[in-house]
TrEMBL record:
Signal peptide: none annotated. It is an enzyme of class 2 (transferase). It comes from Gemmobacter fulvus. Pathway: Glycan biosynthesis; glycogen biosynthesis. It catalyses: alpha-D-glucose 1-phosphate + ATP + H(+) = ADP-alpha-D-glucose + diphosphate. This is Glucose-1-phosphate adenylyltransferase. Its EC number is 2.7.7.27. One of its GO terms (biological process) is glycogen biosynthetic process. Residues 307-410 form the Glucose-1-phosphate adenylyltransferase/Bifunctional protein GlmU-like C-terminal hexapeptide domain. SUPFAM superfamilies: Nucleotide-diphospho-sugar transferases (SSF53448), Trimeric LpxA-like enzymes (SSF51161). Alpha-D-glucose 1-phosphate binds at Y107, G172, E187, K188, S205. Homotetramer. Belongs to the bacterial/plant glucose-1-phosphate adenylyltransferase family. Residues 15-284 form the Nucleotidyl transferase domain.
Length: 423
């Protein structure tokens, strides 16, 4: 693809989103959906953040590789991301693992997911490819990262978070020189290398990679022929480039998009029940760490046509109210008290019930006199009258899944089993 003068690099790039993850640490939340399709923030899904970042950065060619329980993710793409027009050189392709290479071969690893679709990427005619994870929450301008990639002549540019040294043991960590060139890539090291001149912090991989497509294409073909490879970017492709090529670190702080109110770059892996609950509850803060109200960098999603939220009853002890909470459309808060909570679309809360630090996914019904605290409620769950959760850990563990951090996950299957046992 021949670049025109003054052409943005993003218009010569495509985003390849890896969205096949099982997300097993989210337990029952991913029983029926892949992790990128899990709801987040009141009306969006996790994958909307990576896709919105790409769209807002000027990228109009995207591909999404799916594998595990992909139906709800694919349906979300078809409903919410169907506005790309091929006649404007815009594309969004959904690439399920479909045994295109051999009948026995699903996607064997993150790199293999791209390798099996080389012909499709070729058809886009792009110069650069950005590999993205579909399961993180953040706002980032990929154009800034592309500019660094081109300016430094890197073979790969890797998005990096600055994290305290003690926390870096949970990540893939970059050892960099003074120019930001990566000299070593260590997976979850016990003693992480720190940033030159900053002994308290390390650079952790965000799982975001920028390549020249021609370079990556050749590398993927060689990797695909290597029977000893696990065909994974983090395990195989990146260490190979660090050893034999030029790998550069890109610091997230340089391309993080903020509205001016956030006090630090925001990136979260919401891969556990505790992390998922915390990131959602964070949005209810007076000044949230992530600003979803920034119209200059919108998070696109499937916008359902629903009526406004409604609050009814105004008697002492039976007042429909919500304080420090996010309440989505089509919710009816009927004579109940909601505090520091997040209600997704279509929730119903009935008289004399209370909710505090609760994340309720779409279409949850909370019946009368229920008392709920510190919990995540799966989509469509009907909370029975008088249920108390979040006050007695032993009682909670008897019927529901209680996390290490004390957050209770409630699904309809758990409630049905409880009802059957209680009889």
């Amino acid at each position: 693809m021949k670049a025109r003068p003054n052409q943005r690099l993003s218009s010569q790039a495509m985003a390849f989103v890896l969205a096949g993850g099982r997300g097993s640490r989210l337990k029952e939340l991913t029983d029926r959906r892949a992790k990128p399709a899990v709801y987040f923030g009141g009306k969006t899904r996790i994958i909307d953040f990576a896709l919105s970042n790409a769209l807002n950065s000027g990228i109009r060619k995207m591909a999404i590789a799916t594998q595990y329980k992909a139906h709800s993710l694919i349906r979300h793409m078809q409903r919410g991301w169907n506005f790309f027009r091929a006649e404007r050189n815009e594309y969004l392709d959904i690439l399920p693992a479909s045994q295109r290479v051999a009948e026995t071969k699903w996607y064997l690893g993150t790199a293999d997911a791209v390798t099996q679709n080389i012909d499709i990427v070729d058809s886009y005619g792009v110069k650069y490819i950005i590999i993205l994870a579909g399961d993180h929450i953040y706002k980032m301008d990929y154009e800034v990262m592309l500019q660094q990639h081109v300016a430094t002549g890197a073979d790969v540019t890797i998005g990096c978070l600055t994290v305290p040294k003690a926390e870096a043991t949970a990540f893939g960590v970059m050892h960099v020189d003074a120019e930001g060139r990566i000299t070593d890539f260590l997976e979850k090291p016990a003693d992480p290398p720190t940033i030159p001149g900053d002994p308290l912090h390390a650079l952790a991989s965000m799982g975001i990679y920028v390549f020249n497509w021609d370079f990556l294409r050749d590398l993927l073909i060689r990797d695909g022929e290597d029977d000893n490879s696990s065909h994974d970017f983090g395990n195989d492709i990146i260490p190979e480039i660090v050893k034999h090529g030029k790998a550069m670190a890109h610091r997230f702080a340089e391309s993080c998009v903020t509205a001016g109110l956030e006090d630090e770059p925001y990136w979260r892996d919401v891969g556990t029940i505790d992390a998922f609950w915390q990131a959602n509850i964070d949005l209810t803060d007076f000044v949230p760490k992530l600003d979803l109200y920034d119209n200059s960098w919108p998070i696109w999603t499937y916008g359902e046509i629903v009526p406004p939220a409604k609050f009814i009853h105004d008697q002492d002890g039976r007042r429909g109210s919500a304080v420090s909470s996010l309440v989505s459309g089509d919710c009816i808060v009927s004579g109940s008290e909601v505090r520091n909570s997040l209600l997704f679309t279509g929730c119903r809360t009935h008289s004399y019930s209370t909710m505090e630090y609760v994340v309720a996914l779409p279409q949850v019904v909370v019946n009368r006199k229920a008392e709920l605290k510190n919990c995540v409620i799966d989509r469509g769950v009907i909370i029975p009258e008088g249920l108390v959760v979040g006050q007695d850990p032993e009682e909670d563990e008897k019927w529901f899944r209680r996390s290490e951090g004390g957050i209770v996950l409630i699904t309809q299957d758990m409630l049905d089993a409880r009802a059957h046992k209680i009889g």
